[in-house]
C-alpha cells in the first residue's frame, strides 16, 4: 500500500506573520516539527480485540465510538508503541473539517492535551494517530477505581483548566468540553493526568462574532451556543461547570425530557443542588460550580483565574475547606450508560425559535443575577423573583443551597440563592 496522500503541511498551520506564543513551548509555531509521513500499514490493531473486551468494564476505553469516528487502540509495527488511531468516516465529515482539526492539533503541545503523532488516509476514512491515554475516559476511570473525593475532583479539574488556559492564551476555544472528551493517563510515578481530546469543533477566534453550530445533545452547551450568539473563550468554562456538577453528583444539571426543554433550562439557568445528590459536598465546591454557570459570558472568570480559586488549590488559605470522605459515584454508572447509547447527532438549531417563544422578556434581567457566591465576594443572599421584579428576602448562611428541591430553579415565584457583589 502506497504512502498516504492525506497530509497537512505545517506551513499552512499558522500565518507567516504569526508571533511567538509564550504558551506554545516558546518557539514560533512555524519552526515546530511536522508529523512524519504515515501509512496505514505501519499500524496494526492491538491484540486487545474490541469484541473480547466487552466483558471487561475497566477496559472499555480500548474501543471508543464518537459521532463521526471510532478510536481504536493500535500498535506501531516498528516501535511496538501503543497509540490511539482516530478513524474519521469520510461520508460523515468533510475533508476541510478534518483539515481544520489537524491544523490546530499540529500547533499544540501540552501535557494535558493528547498530542498528534501522525496521520494517514484510507479509502473510507481519515486517520489521526494520537498519543495513547492508557486509563481511558475519565468517568470510566473514576467508576473503576472508586474512592472519589473532592480533592481528586479538584485535581482532575486543575488538569482541564491548565489545558484550557493554554488553549485560550492561543485564542483557541474547544467548544466541546464534556466527560467523553476527557481521558486519563498515568505518569511514570503512577499519578493520573487528565488530557483533553477531540478538537473537531475547536476554532481559533480571530473575530468577536463567530457563531458555532450546535449538534447533538446540548447538555454541556453554553447559553450563547444554544441561542446562536457569538461564542467566546469562556464558553468552555460554562461546559466545565457542567462537568464539575456531574463529577460531584453523578447527575446532569440541565437535562430534561427533550433537547428543547434542556436548552430552555440552560438559558433560564434552571438548576439546583438537590440534597440527596449533594450530600457531603462542600459549599466551596458548589460555589465553584456557580462561578462558572453564569449566563453572561463576560461574567465568567477566565481559566487562569479559576486556577487561583481556593477550592482548587492544594493548600486552602482562607478556610474554605473541601469536604472529607468519598463522594457517591453510583449515579455515574447510569450516567455513563445513558451517554453511551446517546447517538443523536442532528442539528438542533431549530430549537431556538422554541426557546425564544418560551423565554419571557423579563428573563433578560437574569443576566445580572447569578447563583451562589462569585469569586472572592460576599455571602449569598436570598432573592424572590415575582412578576418581573426581584425582592430581597433575607441573608442566608454558607449552607444556603442545601435545601433546594430537585425541581427548584430560577422562575416565577421561586426562592433561589443568588449573590450580589458588595
TrEMBL record:
GO terms for biological process: intracellular signal transduction; positive regulation of apoptotic process. Keywords: ATP-binding, Kinase, Nucleotide-binding, Serine/threonine-protein kinase, Transferase. It comes from the Eukaryota. GO terms for cellular component: nucleus. The keyword Protein biosynthesis does not apply. Residues 57-312 form the Protein kinase domain. Residues 25-54 are annotated as: Disordered. This is Protein kinase domain-containing protein. It comes from Stegastes partitus.
